[in-house]
Amino acid sequence: MLATAAPAVALAHEDVVPYELNGRIVTGGHDDVLATDNVTQQVFGYDFGEDPFDPYFIGDPGFNNGAFAIGVYPNNGLLPANTTLGFDVVTNLQYWDGAGGVSFAAAPVDVSLGLARGSFEVLVDGLGQTGTVPTIGSTAAAGRVHVHLESTLNYQGTFDPAVPNAPDGVYLVGLTLKLPGSGVADSDPIYLVYNNGLTEEIHDEAIDWVQANLVPEPSTWLLATVGGCAAMIARLRKRRQQRAAA
Predict the structure, then answer these.
(1) How remote is the C-alpha of 145 from its chain's centroid?
(2) What does the alpha-carbon distance between residue 215 and residue 213 come to, in Å, rounded to a whole number?
(3) Cα dihedral sign for 223, 136, 190, 231?
(4) Contact 88, 122 (CB under 8 A)
(5) Residues 60-87: pLDDT tens digits?
(6) Phi-psi region of 119 (alpha: psi -120 to 50; beta: other; left: phi over 0)
(7) 77 and 64 Cβ atoms separated by less than 8 Å
(8) Is residue 131 classed as helix, strand or coil in its secondary structure?
(9) Among 93, 65, 60, which residue's Cα sits nearest to residue 81?
(10) Quick one: which of 3, 39, 6, 25 has its CA closest to 235?
(11) What are the tens digits of pLDDT across the range 163-208?
């Protein structure tokens, strides 16, 4: 008898929800699978290795401020219409091997993270970035966008699983979102925290550290809206556990 492997099903992850509030871009988080929302969120966790046939490629992060935001997010989650959402990379690629306390440092030599859309890709490593930063997408007439970038974890220029690969660990990069020509100020940094080959407990520990050490204290309106950082971290951890158990 011949056995064929079932295709891997990738776990869902929270999309970044960009919207305009008081003249600047603010970011929240939306989980399609659990239909849950945080009206403000700056740390987003993703996992390499979900597809064993293509373990160093994922179709995340996503950026989505769709109709689910109506009545949930300030300004109904809208961005200015007919503008192009883009981003800047504001950190080098950081790495923690998962041992001991969380301690990020420059990513190992020959490792880079690719963020791509269409034919444009920026490669971020421990020293800087190369390539062309892609745009995310147009807000069109409705002021909404739903686009996914593609992330690759490269070692010596490739993410082919049949050759040597990037070491297991947690990888971190920071971005700011922008709407050139709109008059809307750029977002505060958002942080993408990628797990490569470690447990979700270690991934959670890294996400908690980023939230506690890199994200500014919440403002008064944030505390009133989502109950502050501690509650938000608890919800994010619970959602990851729910997805893992699904």
Answers:
(1) 16
(2) 6
(3) positive
(4) no
(5) 999 999 999 999 999 999 999 999 999 9
(6) alpha
(7) no
(8) strand
(9) 65
(10) 39
(11) 999 999 999 999 999 999 999 999 999 999 999 999 999 999 999 9
Per DSSP bridges, beta strands 43-48 and 190-196 are parallel
User: What tokens appear for 203 in the block?
Assistant: 């991934």
DSSP string for residues in 94-125: EEE-SSSS---EEPPTTEEEEEEETTEEEEEE
Q: Angle formed by the axes of helices 228-245 and 200-214, to 10°?
A: 160
d(Cα 25, Cα 178) in Å, to the nearest integer? 7
Nearest to 118 by CA among 97, 132, 139, 104: 132
Instruction: State how far the Cα of 69 lies from the Cα of 38, in Å rounded to an integer.
Output: 10
Q: How big, in percent rounded to 5, are the helix, strand and coil portions of the chain?
A: 20, 35, 45
Q: What angle do CA 230, 234, 238 make, to 5 degrees?
A: 170
One-letter amino acid for residue 224 of the chain: A
Tokens coding 123: 């490669």
